[in-house]
């Protein structure tokens, strides 16, 4: 997407869209290598940033296969501490050493199944920024909250606590993924207009520079409609990112109808 910015004259600025593959608990290392080698053969437009978030075990493969590539990668979670007696956890320093650029923080599956709270999200966001990782902060309401008209209040709480204590310059570096919980893995995506309303609220609560993407049942058929909304700057993709064919189709579909 291109737009004209005026200041001292007219300037053409390229706005990049962000497409993040959240593989969740899928793929062995041989399957990862196969996917990444196939993806590297695909032409990716310069205005698309593609991030792969595989399981931790596949991160060394990412480092090996993607060093020097325009495709970047990250993790699906991390602890906030550098090291310590935290059995089963991974530290920001470890992710940094593996060449990660991004880390997903506070995915609703982590909040629901592993007791992550707004407060642990806040600690992780601060730790990620401290280590030069871009946090992809997931926020979103449950079906029950939506039905009780609590969406805006939930988003306001989650976003405010995630940003608590950060400098405005740090907030500007964040990515927010608006993921209504009822839309994740359900095949029932939010409408682009509904998502756009929430995106506008997130921007009002944060900074003009933050990147805000949508997640929840995004696929090749609906991505074009999401990307038509100026407030939607990309997508966090689960199911449709696991096979290279469906992911490629989605990336291709994202440019349809774009201005
Ligand atoms: P989905 O998952 O695309 O399969 O709905 C999205 C997510 O959980 O990030």
The whole-number mean of residue pLDDT values reads 94
The secondary structure category is alpha/beta
Q: What is the overall number of helices?
A: 11
Task: Report Rg.
Answer: 18 Å
Overall domain count: 1
In CATH terms, the superfamily is Aldolase class I
Bound ions, cofactors and other small molecules, one mention each: 2-phosphoglycolic acid
CATH architectural label: Alpha-Beta Barrel
Quaternary form: single chain
- How much of the sequence lies in strands comes to 15-25%
SS elements, strand count: 10
Query: Ranges with pLDDT <50 over ≥5 residues?
Result: none
Biggest sheet overview: 8 strands, parallel, barrel
Please give a structural write-up.
- The protein has about 260 residues and is α/β, with parallel strands linked by helices.
- It has a single domain (about 20-45, about 55-255), classed as Alpha-Beta Barrel (TIM Barrel), CATH 3.20.20.
- It is about 35% helix and about 20% strand.
- The protein is built from eleven helices and ten strands.
- The strands form two sheets. It has an eight-stranded parallel β-barrel with strand order 3-4-5-6-7-8-9-10, surrounded by four helices.
- The longest helix has 14 residues, at about 190-205.
- It is globular and about 45 Å long.
- The model has no long low-confidence stretch (mean pLDDT about 95).
- It binds 2-phosphoglycolic acid (PGA).
